[in-house]
User: Fold these one by one.
Assistant:
Number 1:
Amino acid sequence: ICGHSDAMLGTVSANAATFGLLRDTVHALGLCVGPDDIYLGLRGLRTMGVRLAAHYQAGLKIAQWLAARPEVARVLHPAFDTCPGHAVWKRDFTGASGLFGVVLKEGVSDGALAAMIDGLELYGIGSSWGGYESLIVPFSPREVRTATPWQAKGPCFRIHAGLENIDDLIEDLDAGFGRLRAAL
């Protein structure tokens, strides 16, 4: 909601059956939003529509570029028909955020992935998704996945496409892939 990476603020929805539990949890944890965070949220709401559209367009273009890379096994973006849940996304949504996952091919070492990510100039390392800046973070679903086992063999990373120039973001990733290949 805020969009400037200066506050954590969001929403939670509940139906009649779960609202009581949600209310009790909020009260038990003492959750409340302070006036400064409310101000930052209201400020961010003014630009949320244009920011989300820009994040979606940038994320989609970067995801399409990544899908064509020889080092990439799979791109996990809801707009791709190969992505689990694509049918639900297509039915219920008109766009997406700039957040998506990338699975690299088997044989890419953690060191090679680190060489790629550590040298990026336009991407910060982190997971404060939804802000104006582009972020990247390696992740491994293997350790936390509970519903179904994670089958992919290669390492993964997530990208949040920010509001920087899309071609510059792709150029930065391209240089990163050069470092990745050199480290293999």
Number 2:
Amino acid sequence: MKYGVVMRTDIDLRTLPTLAYETEQAGWDGFFIWDGFLGPNPAVLLATVAMQTHRIRFGTMLTPPSRRRPWDLASEAATLDQLSNGRVILPFGLGAAEDLGFASVGEVTDRKLRAQLLDESIDILRGLWRGTPLTFDGNHYHIHGATLSVTPVQSPSIPIWVVGAWSREKSMRRVLRCDGIIPTKMTPDGSVGAC
């Protein structure tokens, strides 16, 4: 069993690298930060974590790929993986339906559509991380012969953890394609509850 810390980002951000260092020194295994709407840039914050620590794994908790472009996520994650010598984990999910970070800026709010964007994003990230030309024609994203100039240290790819709702077959199929699960349960009205 491994243990991690989830750190909020509504703190004095200059203390974050020290907190990550102290978390590592205390023997914890993971250090995760919030990836919230209009909050601090998680890639920049995690770069400071990468440079201040040597053993601990780290990532966001959690990133909804439908709010980001998959090629940008692929580049950010591969860069962080290089800076940290292979310690990045990418926890992904749809994002909370009530999160104003979707509707208030015109992002996709429909859960089914966000799930499709998540699935395509995972395929694109893994394809780009190979460091060879990628052609991808999905329902939402199209890439023609693009090659990422930086690839992850971790092989075959950076671990991707996804939110998995036990009661949803499609959600659990996504979990089986990925490297880890963030367990949750869906209530009859479609909202998410903790396990």
Number 3:
Amino acid sequence: MSENNGKERRVVITGIGVVSPVGIGADNFWKSLSTGQSGIGPIESLSYSASPQNVGGEVKDFTVKSARKVYLKTQRKSIKVMCREIQMGVASAMLAVEHSGLNLDEIDHNRLGVDFCANLMLSPHDVLGHASTDCIEEDGDEIRFLSGEWGRSGLPNMEPLWL
């Protein structure tokens, strides 16, 4: 409160960066919404899914190639240490900055922020598999996940940069 002398803080949204199943970028997203286009369909990126009939919303236009050449071209060296969700989040932030028309070199970075919203952070079974199975105890037909073992047995088997 002391920084703003008890007054309400004011926020200005200068740019919007959208990475979604119905479009990447504010213009493509709005065009899809205004024409009633759906981003829901059969899930193709995973060979399995817990969703009914394997249906969901995928961002199919966000590929490794498009990330490197279009959305994250200034971050190419960092892509290899980002999971797909983080890549999409960074791309969204970069799109918002671009949409704003602001020059980042001229902005006080203490007055700049990104509000990142995601519904789900996916960890495919090949990332969590070995770590999770190290924390399982089987007793006949009963299988229990021993959460107390996670730090000692599971976590050391995770990828070094996993969330």
